[in-house]
């Protein structure tokens, strides 16, 4: 891991969304140097599903030697941000680093995304980042080594990153466009950069999206806080960069990245918006070919053969551990509708609509379906690459991987 050098001692960081996750990790890293941290976040009371508040984060920061100023802030509210900025300047004398970390996510398609969700994502990600930057910049211009760091991805216009969640992509890319524009506007005065992880990062939000099992395919938040710390050590001339966490840490001499893995040795899930994620899926091997009986129909083709195997591995233990009804809407050479019931009795599977309402609907090509059930393509990887569309409970897609691992030797 990247060692602290004390370079942030006495500097003031204004971090949005710093009550938990990556934002708090960056705050704690800075606190070890003796930095001042403004915790600008909404959570003043304990959330029923998410850990931490601005006050518990402040306690952790001060326990490590930093100074904290917890501020109740909704980044969509100009008055709240303005008041937090003024409190920071009054208490600490200025602002040296702004971290735009607050973000809202909803991974649904155009027809499934309510305008309330669209407004939330655009309001927090795009408008909130722009507004917080606008109000902090006058103070950053007075700093000796000012930085704005947005937790946002490189601007990758590959349509695959838009097709399944256009609203989220637009909102997140709005943060990245702030980097593109402000870096040029304030070139020579303020370093403005973006930071994005190469792999999925394990946070409470990730658990909510993908379920607890997805954590085994993630790195922890320390890799992002170390990468941010490396960026803060750069001069103002280091600007306009879309930094990937692993890449900058390699330049800092980090060679062992297993220290950041939640479960060392497990395959890591690449994050959104990186070409490597798509390429990894494309290169995972050819689809499994199951012999087709001459004159086969949907009931006797390769998909039917796969479902016969699925029926053979279903048992009460799998049903109990999964607890979901899946509907598969398959396109391509072997198009059709199929289901797996891993919620009722000893489980069942077959062609047609499920006997009860599906908890999750998966839409994909039939060739990718056979690859997925042969262990060649993980559901999470298929989803992130655009090969799989999921409606319903995302965590059930993760749980289904357990059954797939049991089938691997049979396919």
Automatic annotation (TrEMBL):
SCP2 domain boundaries: 316-404
Annotated coiled-coil segments of the chain: none
Pfam families to which the protein is assigned, alphabetical: adh_short (PF00106), SCP2 (PF02036)
MF annotations from Gene Ontology: oxidoreductase activity
Primary localization: mitochondrion
Gene Ontology CC entries for this record: mitochondrion; peroxisome
Record keywords, A-Z: Mitochondrion, NADP, Oxidoreductase, Peroxisome
InterPro entries xrefs: HSDL2, NAD(P)-bd_dom_sf, SCP2_sterol-bd_dom, SCP2_sterol-bd_dom_sf, SDR_fam
Localization terms from the record: Mitochondrion; Peroxisome
Gene3D superfamilies: NAD(P)-binding Rossmann-like Domain, SCP2 sterol-binding domain
Family: Belongs to the short-chain dehydrogenases/reductases (SDR) family.
NCBIfam families: PRK08278.1
Stated name of the protein: Hydroxysteroid dehydrogenase-like protein 2
Lineage: Eukaryota, Metazoa, Chordata, Craniata, Vertebrata
